């Protein structure tokens, strides 16, 4: 039965059936093949969605869209430019820094791409940076949106594996900072080598002025993350706080949110949330059938025979997840694969939070690799360039991120240091 389901799902993928629909149809085939009552489908859909941490998903998505619409992201860009804009390549570096700050609230890489890219890609083009470079940089830097907490994929991993959301969030801080600095270093060297960005400091605001203009926006991540790890509210409650804060700032302080912009932000958020929830619902039925067929145990036994130690297991997982991320949407990959792979990883002595970070970073790479990288399509839309034209300039960014992934994988203290400090 499990072989029939997996084969059916792959066939649906091959004929371009949407991922969520492919998973759902494969699950229905499994239920029909086993002769089970169709009530099982409704029961498992309900069980998959009836999880309190999932409440955070629509709120964090909405918070990111409100930040974009209310001008919060614009002020973050101004602040980042005032900090690093004075060095050669500073405008491009400020793209990474802004994505890093924006990621500490939004939780979505696509939202980060549009919110930051809409401002910085035109600015980089105006300062003479090549269009393919600007699009590649924005697409790659935006993946920080799902690595630095809060992160929607991390919430999905936690829900799928009964792992602590708070532990996953804090484990993502060190890896996110490492990737950000790796990208900044590459951008600086690129600008030096090719002579770009010599006048990036022109027109930037003084640091004090930009800080005064942006301090309310910059205080948002402090409230969210400080509240979570200060024990004031849970990660799920923090998502609602983020929305309220963005609404108050956007309506009463910056006065950029009106009925039209609010309607657009809610519309985009509803669509994004519905897609994720539809995937989770279908994957819940699919996962139930795989568990019933004993697939997790069989997979664990097989991987135990293939990989002799923790080092080779992690290498194999990185290669497999990187390839999977190129073809399968991140949310679907997590809710289907995480419950299967985490027990095996724990058998090899891998901490659940560390493995969650490894999986999220791998699948975040899939967002910036063809043929189905959602960040690539978003960045190309903003930059008004075809996907084919940015492939060459994209490769170094992917290699830098993959190099950081290897460090994250084999230096677990990078992910676990803060977690052990906070949770013991």
Question: Which characteristics define this entry?
Answer:
424 residues; mainly alpha; 0% strand
Short description:
79% of the residues lie in helices and 0% in strands.
Task: Please characterize this protein's 3D structure.
The model has no long low-confidence stretch (mean pLDDT 86). The longest helix has 34 residues, at 259-292. Helix 17 packs antiparallel against helix 18 (352-366). With 424 residues, this protein is an all-alpha fold. It is globular. The chain is built from 21 helices and no strands. It has one domain (2-423).
In this structure, how is the largest beta sheet organized? none
| Domain module tally | 1
**Number of helices, counting only DSSP H or I runs of 4 residues or more:** 21
Give me the strand/helix succession: HHHHHHHHHHHHHHHHHHHHH
Which bin fits the share of residues in helices? over 70%
How far is the first residue's CA from the last residue's CA? 43 Å
Strand content: under 5%
Mean pLDDT: 86
Task: Give me the Rg, rounded.
Answer: 21 Å
Secondary structure tally: strands: 0
Shape: globular
Q: List the uncertain runs.
A: none
Structure classification: mainly alpha
**Oligomeric status of the shown chains?**
single chain
List the helices and strands and how they pair.
Elements: H1 2-14, H2 19-34, H3 39-49, H4 56-70, H5 72-84, H6 90-106, H7 109-126, H8 131-141, H9 152-161, H10 165-171, H11 173-194, H12 207-229, H13 235-253, H14 259-292, H15 295-306, H16 310-327, H17 330-347, H18 352-366, H19 374-383, H20 391-410, H21 413-423
Helix pairs in contact: 1-2, 2-14, 3-14, 4-7, 4-13, 4-14, 5-6, 5-12, 6-7, 6-8, 6-11, 6-12, 7-8, 7-19, 8-19, 8-20, 9-17, 10-21, 11-20, 12-13, 14-17, 15-17, 16-18, 17-18, 18-20
């Amino acid at each position: 039965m499990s072989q029939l389901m997996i084969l059916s799902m792959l066939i649906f993928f091959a004929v371009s059936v949407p991922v969520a629909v492919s998973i759902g149809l494969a699950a229905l085939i499994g239920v029909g093949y086993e002769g089970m009552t169709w009530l099982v489908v409704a029961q498992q859909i309900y069980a998959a969605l009836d999880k309190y941490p999932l409440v955070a998903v629509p709120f964090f998505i909405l918070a990111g869209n409100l930040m974009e619409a209310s001008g919060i992201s614009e002020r973050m860009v101004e602040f980042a430019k005032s900090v690093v804009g004075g060095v050669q390549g500073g405008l491009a570096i400020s793209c990474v820094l802004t994505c890093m700050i924006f990621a500490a609230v939004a939780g979505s890489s696509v939202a980060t791409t549009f919110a930051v890219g809409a401002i910085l890609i035109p600015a980089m083009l105006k300062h003479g940076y090549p269009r393919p470079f600007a699009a590649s940089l924005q697409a790659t830097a935006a993946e920080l949106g799902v690595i630095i907490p809060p992160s929607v994929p991390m919430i999905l991993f936690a829900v799928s594996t009964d792992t602590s959301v708070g532990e996953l969030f804090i484990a993502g801080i060190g890896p996110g900072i490492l990737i950000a600095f790796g990208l900044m270093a590459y951008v600086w060297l690129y600008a030096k080598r090719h002579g770009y960005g010599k006048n990036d400091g022109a027109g930037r605001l003084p640091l004090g002025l930009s800080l005064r203009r942006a301090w309310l926006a910059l205080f948002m991540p402090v409230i969210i993350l400080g509240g979570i790890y200060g024990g004031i509210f849970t990660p799920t409650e923090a998502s609602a706080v983020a929305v309220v804060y963005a609404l108050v700032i956007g309506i009463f302080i910056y006065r950029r949110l009106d009925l039209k912009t609010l309607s657009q932000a809610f519309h985009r958020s509803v669509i994004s949330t519905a897609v994720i929830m539809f995937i989770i619902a279908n994957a819940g039925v699919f996962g139930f059938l795989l568990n019933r067929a004993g697939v997790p145990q069989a997979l664990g036994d097989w991987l135990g025979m293939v990989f002799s130690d923790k080092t080779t297991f992690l290498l194999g997982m990185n290669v497999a997840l990187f390839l999977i991320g190129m073809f399968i949407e991140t949310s679907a990959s997590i809710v289907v694969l995480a419950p299967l792979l985490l027990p095996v990883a724990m058998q090899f002595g891998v901490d659940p939070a560390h493995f969650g970070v490894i999986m999220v970073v791998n699948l975040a790479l899939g967002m910036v690799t063809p043929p189905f990288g959602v960040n690539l399509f978003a960045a190309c839309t903003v930059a008004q360039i075809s996907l084919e034209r940015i492939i060459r300039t994209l490769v170094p960014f992917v290699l830098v991120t993959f190099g950081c992934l290897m460090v994250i994988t084999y230096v677990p203290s990078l992910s676990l240091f803060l977690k052990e400090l906070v949770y013991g």
